[in-house]
Automatic annotation (TrEMBL):
<keyword id="KW-1133">Transmembrane helix</keyword>
<dbReference type="Pfam" id="PF04011">
    <property type="entry name" value="LemA"/>
</dbReference>
<comment type="similarity">
    <text>Belongs to the LemA family.</text>
</comment>
<dbReference type="InterPro" id="IPR023353">
    <property type="entry name" value="LemA-like_dom_sf"/>
</dbReference>
<keyword id="KW-0472">Membrane</keyword>
<dbReference type="InterPro" id="IPR007156">
    <property type="entry name" value="MamQ_LemA"/>
</dbReference>
<keyword id="KW-0812">Transmembrane</keyword>
<protein>
    <submittedName>
        <fullName>LemA family protein</fullName>
    </submittedName>
</protein>
Length: 195
């Protein structure tokens, strides 16, 4: 009778362990899948940027430095995205992607601000279409990023709860990183000058 109770307790503990482990795997796969959706939209964005720069080049001959900064930031973001897409549960890869995306967003912001000084460029139908496509893609990235961050939050919360953390830590379920674009320009206060 004592052996039967011991077997039942062991079976219950194993079932408990397996349930927690399987839930961790499910949640990790969910946020990896959510990152795949971000990856699709980021690649679309990366594909649009060279066309945008090429269109602007004809009008902004004196803004070579800005155009080169956009391409350089784009290339860094592409590289960071490839690393993150290969391993979305690597917090360092996501942090690096956050930084690269922030730099790209800043460079694109400078390009768009400069384009305001070129009325012919603003009126160019190709430029207008590319900016519209980029804007639509940015919205899709924002939605995909929100879904990813929600999945990461659910995963991180579950893995940190007791007794789940006793299973998560030894089996390599690391904390996942949120995808938040780090754009210092967005964080700085707007300076208003009435002089």
């Amino acid at each position: 009778m004592g052996t039967m109770i011991t077997l039942i307790v062991i079976a219950a503990l194993v079932l408990f362990f397996v349930t927690i482990y399987n839930k961790l795997v499910t949640l990790r796969n969910r946020f990896k899948n959510a990152f795949a959706q971000i990856d699709v939209q980021l690649n679309r964005r990366y594909d649009l940027i060279p066309n945008l720069v090429e269109t602007a080049k004809g009008y902004m001959k004196h803004e070579k430095e800005t155009l080169e900064a956009v391409i350089s930031a784009r290339n860094s973001a592409v590289s960071a995205n490839q690393t993150a897409a290969a391993n979305p549960d690597d917090p360092d890869a996501i942090k690096h992607l956050n930084q690269a995306e922030g730099q790209l967003t800043g460079a694109l912001g400078r390009l768009f601000a400069l384009s305001e000084a070129y009325p012919d460029l603003k009126a160019n139908q190709t430029m207008e279409q590319l900016m519209e496509e980029l804007s639509t893609t940015e919205n899709k990235i924002a939605f995909a990023r929100q879904a990813y961050n929600d999945s990461v939050m659910e995963y991180n919360t579950y893995r940190e709860q007791v007794p789940n953390n006793f299973i998560a830590n030894p089996f390599g379920f690391k904390e996942a990183e949120l995808f938040e674009i780090e754009d210092e320009q967005v964080r700085e206060a707007v300076k208003v000058d009435f002089s």
